[in-house]
Amino acid sequence: MRMWSLTPAVLDAKGIVACWRESLLAQAVLAGKTKGYTHHPQLERFRACEHPLAAVASYLEPLADEADRRGYHFDRSRILERPDPELRLTVNDGQLSYEWRLLLKKLEQRDPKACARMTERGPQPHPIFLVVPGPVAAWEKVIAGV
């Protein structure tokens, strides 16, 4: 499961579709509607919120907005709660940088042209996240060489 801390705008087609599906899975886990992935480390940051389902909804909404901009159709009726436009989670700058390197590594293989364009852009957070100083998150499973 990868719920990117990066803005959906930098995800390629495969990346945004996978993120949408995996975020819906995370929502199902937090709603108690599935038995799988219940201890997935990426869910820690959503579980830490007072209203985890609103947090996931607030994460899903910008993914759907980006999909709309691209002419895709993500079924917003699958979002269980109303997004909270004021809700912000924090992400360490070290985590954001790690995810940026991981995304570039994936794009190198899937779409080298997109990767070349992205290297000029630099990491930008998903709208739900406020960037704070700090290392890669403790829950992250760091891949060697990234």
Which terms summarize this structure?
146 residues, mainly alpha, two-stranded parallel sheet, 5 helices, 2 strands, globular
Counted by DSSP, the helix tally is 5
Strand order of the largest sheet: 1-2
How many angstroms does the end-to-end distance come to? 18 Å
Helix-strand sequence: HHHEHHE
Based on helices, strands and strand pairing, what is the structural class? mainly alpha
Low-confidence stretches: none
Largest beta-sheet characterization: 2 strands, parallel
Radius of gyration: 15 Å
Portion in helices: 40-55%
- Mean pLDDT score: 93
Shape category: globular
Work out the count of structural domains.
1
User: Total number of β-strand segments?
Assistant: 2
Beta strand %: 5-15%
Overview of the molecule:
- The two termini are 18 Å apart.
- Helix 1 runs antiparallel to helix 3 and helix 4 packs antiparallel against helix 5.
- Helix content is 46%, strand content 5%.
- The protein has five helices and two strands.
- The longest helix has 19 residues.
- It has one domain.
- The relative contact order is 0.19.
- It is globular, with a radius of gyration of 15 Å.
- The chain is mostly helical.
- It comes from Bifidobacterium crudilactis.
- Keywords: Lyase.
What's the structural blueprint in terms of helices and strands?
Layout: H1 13-30, H2 44-47, H3 52-70, E1 89-92, H4 93-110, H5 112-119, E2 129-132
Parallel strand pairs: 1-2
Helix pairs in contact: 1-3, 4-5
Keywords: Lyase
Protein name: DNA lyase
GO molecular function: lyase activity
